[in-house]
């Protein structure tokens, strides 16, 4: 070996040696918290967990090798939600993914430093962040607010039943975004020559009374607004709608599977999968304050023909052609 070759080989060894040694060191195990309404053992909760993990796998993260998941479910108890948010803050997770309102708010109260990736109904209107473009706090994520959504839901109901003149809207007065959707519903209803009947329910015990009001007011259909409680009680609400002979519309596909006539709204599984992009950026050093909120853009329509038959209804081909899923 001549001197020039020897020096080149030595230099190469000096450059690559530390990298090879560094590559052999065990990778840091990041702790990713997931604060969910549903337990991981729930079939839907399990799908949401898998959606987050699938998104992370796409980016090269393997559970147990690169990340450890700290799953916590609050199951409708605000007291439990606050305790779990505090627990995750004390564990000093590297980042926490939170589901529906008010999980993000409680996690933010528990810690102003733990990075939070939220799926949220209205992060700006609720005061959670300063703006979608520059959140300015320890929270970023995906906004699922879409003020055109309820107008499109009303339009589809009218397409299915052109003579429809009164539509009930089930809302939860404790859910901040419902006031926004109700205002948009009034605008859409006027353009479609439909009268709205606003129903309110703060707890499942109020569902029966709300549907009795819909019948008394001669509503022909009901739109159930997006709400964690309404989602969890989707089977009960679908049964009430069918019992009262109401065409029913909800925002999530699992609600159609539970017996609603139709579901049209943001694809929740896609939103959960998209949180992985934010988790990755944060684990690489990005600050939530500098990561703009993303607007959910993937929507889906599900039609339940079994429910249509129970109501003696024929779904127009124009609606079926737009459906992403048809339940027989």
Notable features of this structure?
Rossmann fold; six-stranded parallel β-sheet; 328 residues; alpha/beta; single chain; elongated; 20% strand; 44% helix; 13 helices; seven-stranded mixed β-sheet; 2 domains
What does it look like?
The chain is of the alpha/beta class. It has two domains: 30-145 and 268-297, Response regulator (Rossmann fold); 149-266 and 300-327, Response regulator (Rossmann fold), CATH 3.40.50. It is built from 13 helices and 13 strands. Strands 7-6-8-9-10-12-13 form a seven-stranded mixed sheet, with helices on both faces. It has a six-stranded parallel sheet with strand order 2-1-3-4-5-11, with helices on both faces. The longest helix is centred in the N-terminal third of the chain and has 22 residues, at 3-24. It is elongated and about 60 Å long. It starts with a helix and ends with a strand. The model is unreliable at 1-26 (pLDDT under 50).
